[in-house]
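REQUEST FORM: STRUCTURE PREDICTION
Request ID: SP-0412
Submitted by: Lab K.M.
Chain count: 1
Length (residues): 294
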Amino acid sequence: MSERTAFINAILDNPTDDTARLVFADWLEERGERERAEFIRLQIEADKSPTSEHHRNALRARTTGVEAVHGATWRAAVGIDQRRGVYERGFLTKLEFLSTLFPILAEALLTVEPVTVTIHLVGQHEDDSAVTLEEIDEFASDPYLRAVTKISSQGGFGRERFVRLMKSPYLINLREIDIFQEPLGADGIEAVVNAPASFKLESLTLNEALQDDSGDEGRAVELLATSPRFASLKALGLMFNELTDESIRVLLASKTLPRTMRIELEDNAYDEEEFAESLAARFGVESDGDSGDE
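STATUS: Completed
RESULT:
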């Protein structure tokens, strides 16, 4: 393992710790990458500075200037164009890749800098051949998944593929799951609950995703309401799931879901009028509930 790779791994293993980032900046400067090192330090200082707003704005202006001059070169070094990704605390974030392409591109990205990425889950390759379960198992064993902070699916990935992917021990930095029209059911939620990676979810969107093959969302809701895995959520989306009054009662009775969590409940089957006040009181914010009942 090269020194550079060791620094990158240290940052991915401790993404909230600025010390590893600053040590890497020193290492880069010693090897002639002075502007890159300066940029990392400036962004970190701007992010954590307790000083005046004027000082923070001045730091951000300096980082913008450095990026304007060097950003295209830095992006080219990891093989992406200058319109992709956002620099945060010194390194690229919010890069987006299809799940079929990320394994091919990951090494080129993550041997240069500790980028973080969103993976869009797809069930087919570009030639329309199906992604096999064996391919998902291999994907789940890829250490580069430590760079993934968000996974999303707009349908077509499938419950079994999702369950197998969640068995990866490398999804340690996963913060967001965004699922739409993917019938994960209770098995999918249970896979998140039992995932071996020690990630802390901040956002979980399961729109039209809770019902299993029998059309019952009850067990999935029970898992959401009782598992400590979801105690760190800031946002929970449960639209288009045919949630009943009983499901809402289970959510309201939860001892683990945060009171400050934002919950979205549009287009479900529960009695909106009956539960509006209790939802607002339980979660500390006004629910976006719209059950669709007339």
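NOTES: The chain has eleven helices and nine strands.
Reviewed by: T.R.
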